[in-house]
C-alpha cells in the first residue's frame, strides 16, 4: 500500500482589514483593503525600514519573499502603495528576476541541481524519480501544499555532484537510496528508487 507522501498543510486564511498605504515611511494614504495577516505583520516593519523610492523596489521584494516565502498579491500591492507605483509595475519588476516566486511554496522544499556535472552523475534520474513520486514538475507544489520541487542550474559545488538540497540543507553525492533516506528522515516517506536497482 502506498503511503501518503506528506501531511496536508492548513491554509489558515483569516484576512482582516488593514491600511496598507503609506506616504513617506509609514504614513497613510487612506486606502483600506483586507490583506493576509502575515503580509500585515511583515509590512508593518518594512514600511519603516525602506524609503518610499523606486530604489527600494528590489530590497522590499526580497524582504517580503524572505519573510513570507513568496510574493503574494497583497505584498505586491503593499509595496506598490508604499512606493507610489502601480502594482503591475512592481509585479513587472519582480517577474524579471528568477529569484522571485509568486506561488506559495510547500512546507518542504526539494531542490535538485540540474547542472551538467550533477545531471550526468545521476541528478537527472533523481529528478525523474521525484517528479514521478510527487506527480509534479519542477517549480510546482504538490496539491496538498506540502512539497515544492525545484531545479537550479548549478550550485557551484560540482565536485559534490549530484547535489540535492532539502529544506535548505545541502547534500552531496546523493544517489537514489540516499535521497530516499533523506526525504524519509524529514518525515516524508517516498517511493523514490523503488523502480530501479541503480543507486538503491
Ligand atoms: S552542476 Fe551541480 S553543483 Fe554544479
Q: Walk across the major sheet and give the strand order.
A: 4-3-5-6
The strand count comes to: 6
Please give the largest β-sheet: 4 strands, mixed
Overall pLDDT score: 80
Q: Tell me the number of structural domains.
A: 2
Could you give a short description of this structure?
The chain is an alpha+beta fold and 200 residues long. The protein is built from six helices and six strands. α1 packs parallel to α3, α2 runs antiparallel to α3 and α3 crosses α4.
Give a structural overview:
32% of the residues are buried. This protein folds into 2 domains: 81 residues, Arc Repressor Mutant, subunit A; 78 residues, Glutaredoxin (3-Layer(aba) Sandwich), CATH 3.40.30. The chain is built from 6 helices and 6 strands, in the order ββααααβαβββα. β5 and β6 form a beta hairpin. It is α+β, with helices and mostly antiparallel strands and 200 residues long. Strands 4-3-5-6 form a 4-stranded mixed β-sheet, with helices on one face. Strands 1-2 form a two-stranded antiparallel sheet. The site of FE2/S2 (inorganic) cluster has 12 residues, from α5.
Amino acid at each position: 500500500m502506498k503511503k501518503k507522501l506528506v501531511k496536508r498543510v492548513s491554509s489558515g486564511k483569516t484576512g482582516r482589514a488593514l491600511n496598507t498605504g503609506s506616504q513617506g515611511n509609514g504614513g497613510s494614504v487612506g486606502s483600506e483593503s483586507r490583506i493576509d495577516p502575515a503580509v500585515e505583520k511583515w509590512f508593518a516593519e518594512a514600511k519603516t525600514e525602506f524609503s518610499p523610492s523606486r530604489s527600494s523596489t528590489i530590497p522590499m521584494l526580497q524582504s517580503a519573499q524572505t519573510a513570507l516565502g513568496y510574493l503574494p498579491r497583497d505584498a505586491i500591492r503593499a509595496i506598490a502603495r508604499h512606493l507610489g507605483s502601480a502594482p503591475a509595475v512592481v509585479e513587472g519588476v519582480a517577474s524579471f528576476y528568477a529569484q522571485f516566486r509568486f506561488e506559495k511554496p510547500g512546507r518542504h522544499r526539494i531542490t535538485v541541481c540540474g547542472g551538467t556535472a550533477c545531471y550526468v552523475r545521476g541528478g537527472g534520474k533523481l529528478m525523474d524519480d521525484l517528479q514521478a513520486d510527487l506527480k509534479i514538475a519542477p517549480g510546482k507544489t504538490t496539491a496538498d501544499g506540502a512539497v515544492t520541487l525545484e531545479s537550479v542550474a548549478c550550485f557551484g559545488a560540482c565536485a559534490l555532484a549530484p547535489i540535492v538540497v532539502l529544506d535548505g540543507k545541502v547534500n552531496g553525492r546523493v544517489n537514489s537510496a540516499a535521497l530516499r533516506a533523506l526525504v524519509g528522515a524529514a518525515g516524508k516517506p517516498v517511493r523514490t528508487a523503488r523502480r530501479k536497482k541503480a543507486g538503491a
